[in-house]
Structures are given as C-alpha cells and as structure tokens.
Amino acid sequence: MLDALRRSLAGQHEPFRSDSKKPRGAVAVLFKAEADDLWLLMIKRSENPRDPWSGQMAFPGGHADPQDQALFDTAAREALEEVGINLHNQEFLGCLQSVQPKNAPMVVTPFLFLLLTEVHPTTSREAKEILWIPMSFLLNPKNVSSIKVPIDRKEVSMGCYVYLDHIIWGMSFRIIREIVSKITSAP
Fold it and tell me: Which pLDDT value is given to residue 126?
C-alpha cells in the first residue's frame, strides 16, 4: 500500500499549477505505518461559527499566511498548530491535485507525509478530536456511503465514509478518494 502510494506520487513534490485567483490553502495528510496497515490522521474540527468546516472531520490545514514562503510551509505550520506534529522531520510523499471546497472561495493543496517517528498528536483550539483511520477501511468500496446535505436550500446527495460514528464527507472525502485511486492504480 505504502509502496503503491510512493510510486504514484513520485515526482509530484510541488503543488499542481493553478490559474485560480482564489486564496490558497493547504492541508497535511499524515500517515503512519502500523500493524500491517497504513493509518490516516484526521481531526474533528472544533465548533466555530466563522469556520466553514466547523465540527466536521478534516485534515489539519488552513489558509496560507503572508509569513508562509510556500504552501508546504502552510501545511507544516497548520499541522504543528492543530495537532502538535512537526513535519520537517517526517517523509514528504508528494502533493495531490488541488481541490476547491464547495463552501469557501479558495483552492486547497493536499501535502502527504509519512510519519517516520513516533508522534503524540494533541488536540488544540481548532482540533477537538484526533482520529486514526486504517487505509484498509478506506480502500474497501463497501465502506463508501452517501449522505444528504443541505446546499442552496436543496438536499444534495454526497459521498461519505462513516467510521466509528464519524462522517467524513465533502473536501476530505474527495481527497481520500484521490488517495484510494492513487493506491489502487499505481503501477
């Protein structure tokens, strides 16, 4: 699984080019290899009326700050702020295609990392819960479900995972589906 992900991301160590004028952001997608599986770290975001992803399952991340020299720095800063993990001594695997969330005017680049050292993620003001999800669960097509979400006064069906009573949908679901695709289609 890890080798397939490495092969599929080989050479993609810079964000994909985007001509969008929307603000940029980044998320840190963190994996650990343990017990013959690859585990993905997700957070449950704290409730905040100013956060478009309030209370949702997400990856550590956020808007690029002027102090960030590159989007890589945004992902690293957000991982340190939200879960207390320093990414500078972990293995950078590569970038996925940038995604545009449906509920915020921005472009978000996922940066994937393999944790090489034992980490002890901590909750923060932005991350009220931390959850490790096995990729074996996410790779099983039987675990893909759907939910109805109110968008523009209509109920829209969206793909999701339900893991231990946590619903993973929206941008996070789309990022995971790209990871699944990378693993299952790697040469």
Answer: 87
pTM of structure: 0.91
Q: What angle do CA 176, 185, 106 make, to 5 degrees?
A: 35
Angstrom distance (rounded) from CA 60 to CA 6: 21
| Distance (Å, whole) CA 132 – CA 168 | 13
| C-alpha–C-alpha distance, residues 175 and 177, integer Å | 5
Residue of 175, 5, 163 whose CA lies nearest to 94 = 5
Residue 49 has pLDDT above 70, yes or no: no
With tokens 């810079």, the residue in question is 14
pLDDT per residue over 125-155, tens digit each? 989 999 999 999 999 999 999 998 877 788 8
- Among positive and negative, which fits the CA dihedral 84, 25, 179, 101? positive
DSSP state of 169: E
